[in-house]
Each structure stands twice: as structure tokens, then as C-alpha cells.
Amino acid sequence: MTSPERGAASDTIEASFSRLGQLAASLVRDEMALAKAEAGEKARQLALGAGAVVVGAMISLAGVIVLYEGFVAAMRDFAGVHPVFSALGASILIAVIAGWLVYSAVVRLKPSGLVPRHTIDSLRRDREMLETLGR
User: Fold this and answer.
1) What ranges in 79-116 are assigned the alpha helix state H?
2) Which of 54, 56, 71, 117 has the highest local Cβ count within 10 Å?
3) Is 126:31 a contact under the CB 8 Å cutoff?
4) For the segment 23-48, what is each residue's pLDDT rounded down to a tens digit?
5) What does 42-96 look like in DSSP terms, one character per residue?
């Protein structure tokens, strides 16, 4: 190979590596934009879920109080249970229901559901592609 041919090949290799560097930088910028967008979406999802829980709890509190009083009165008047024991029984029932509702809400708001899975998968694919190109 003559010297001009060797120089042209070297320029082509340099241009290819330069282009590869530009593409890698562009890929990183795009992945960062995706991560920001997905993090914003997860934050909105968390805020909406938490807001719904708070509003639902506030609205249902009035209904729970009325049900509680009705249950106590029914146990006292129709079942002949002493008022103290009817109030205790109603309180235990309400506590069990409340515990179940809180547990189900906590399960839905687990941090594992807020992981940006699309970004992680995309970054994993990009890393594998770059490793393949680097070989």
C-alpha cells in the first residue's frame, strides 16, 4: 500500500471513530432525556396515587363514623349487648378494615413499581450494543 492510500485509510478510520464518538454522545443525551421524562411520569403517578388516597380517606371518614354509630346502636338495641362491648366490637371491626385498606395501599405504592424500567432496559441494550461495537 502506498503512502497516500495509507493516509486515506487512516482518515477513514479517524472519521469512523469520530462519528462513533458523536453517536455515543448523542445516545447518552437521548437516554438522559428519556430518564428525565420517565422520572417525571413516575413522580406524577406517585402524586396522583397519594392524592387519591388522601381524598378518599377524608371523604370516607364521615361514612365510617356513621356506620360505626349504626353498628354500635344495632348491637346495643337489637342484640342486647352492653354499650361498652358493642362499641369495642365495632372498634375492632373498623380497625381490621382500616388495617386491610392501609396494607393494600402500601402494596400499590411500593418503590419497585416506581422504577424507570424503560430507561433501565434501554440503557442495558445500549451498553450491550457499545460493547459489541468495541470488540
Assistant:
1) 83-108
2) 71
3) yes
4) 888 888 888 888 888 888 888 888 88
5) HHHHHHHHHHHHHHHHHHHHHHHHHHHHHHHHHHHHTS---HHHHHHHHHHHHHH
